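Re: the 296-residue chain
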Amino acid sequence: MKVIKTISQMQLESEGIKHNNKTIAVVPTMGYLHDGHLSLIKKAKQTADYVITTIFVNPTQFGPNEDFSKYPRDFDRDYLLAESAGSDYIFFPDSKEMYPLPFFTSIIVSNVSEKFEGIFRPSHFQGVATVVVKLFNITKPNIAVFGQKDYQQTMVIRSLIRDLNFEIELIVVPTLRESDGLAMSSRNKYLSESERKKAGILFKAMEDVKTAIAKGECDRKMLNSYMHKKLREIKEIKIDYAACATSNSLEEPEFFLPGEEIVILIACFLGKTRLIDNSLMKIPGKLNQSNFVEGI
C-alpha cells in the first residue's frame, strides 16, 4: 500500500490508473479508523480495481469551539488497519497542502445543509463540501464510499455530485454498531467508562420510534416526543435535536404518509462528547384520512 502526501503525486497516480482502464473508489476519512471505516474500505474493494483511503482532519469543517485540536490521530495504526481492509493507497496530506495560502474558494450546498446539523454547526457542511470536492478532483474516483452514520452529510454529497456534474457513483454503507447499538465513531474514544455504558440510549430512543411507527403512529411531533422522553432518562444528555423527517428531503410534515420512508435523526451531548446517529424506516399500512381533518 502506497502512502501519498502531495496532491500532484496523487493526481498522477490516479491518472495512471484511469489510463489503464481501471476503476478507483475513494473512501474519505479523518482517520482514527475503526471497524465502521473498514467496512467502507471493504465495500470499496468489492466495487473498484483500486481503493484510495484519504486521511485528513479537515480544519474547515470544525467550528471555533469544537474538537479539531484534540481529534484523535494515530497514523501508524490507521496504516495497518487500512491495509488489512484492502486499501491500495492512503492519501495523507497536511493542511498546508490542502489549503495553500491564499485560499479564497468554498463550496456551499444549500437546502439540505440548512437544517439539523446546519443549525448547530453552521459552517460545517461548507467545510465538508469544499474538502470533498477537492478530494474528488485529487483522487479522480469512479466511486465514492461514505457511511450512513453521517446521514445529512451523505445528502449534501449526493447533491454536489449531481449539481456539479461529477461522474461519480455514491455508495452509502449502513452504520456499523457496537453490541449495545451505539454507532461506531472515532469520537466514542472521548466517552468515559460511565458515559460509554449509557450511550446505548441513542439506539434505544430510535427503537422506541420504530415501535410506535409499527403500531400505527404517524404524527411527527408524537414520534419526536418518544425520542426526547427516552433520551432524558440520562441526566448527562443535552439534546441538540431528536427528530423525524422525510428521508429524501428532510421535510418535517405534520403527518407521515403510508409507504413514505423517514429518517430518524439524533444529535446530543453525553457529557462533553457530541454523538450523532440515525435510522431509516418506512411508514406501513393505510392512513385514516380523518386524522388530517380531526387532528387525531
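The longest helix spans residues 124-139.
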